[in-house]
Write a sequence for this structure.
């Protein structure tokens, strides 16, 4: 769990990707993670997380903004 925390903090995609802990809701997006470096150098990560025991999952959009001078 601690390793996944640091992957998220650094906007990295976990390898291997998460595994569902419960039933994934009908129509839910598949587990995925994409990391992009944008033209100005900032990093964006879009991820669809695992489903927990109650069937909840998250769509996470995050990034590190590079300050332009």
């Amino acid at each position: 769990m601690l390793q996944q925390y640091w992957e998220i903090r650094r906007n990295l995609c976990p390898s291997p990707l998460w595994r569902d802990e419960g039933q994934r809701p009908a129509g839910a997006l598949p587990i995925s993670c994409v990391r992009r470096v944008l033209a100005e150098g900032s990093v964006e990560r879009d991820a669809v997380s695992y489903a927990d025991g109650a069937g909840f999952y998250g769509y996470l959009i995050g990034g590190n903004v590079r300050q332009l001078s």
Notes: The mean pLDDT is 80. The beta strands are 32-37, 43-48, 59-64. The chain has one helix and three strands. The CA atoms of residues 31 and 60 lie 11 Å apart.
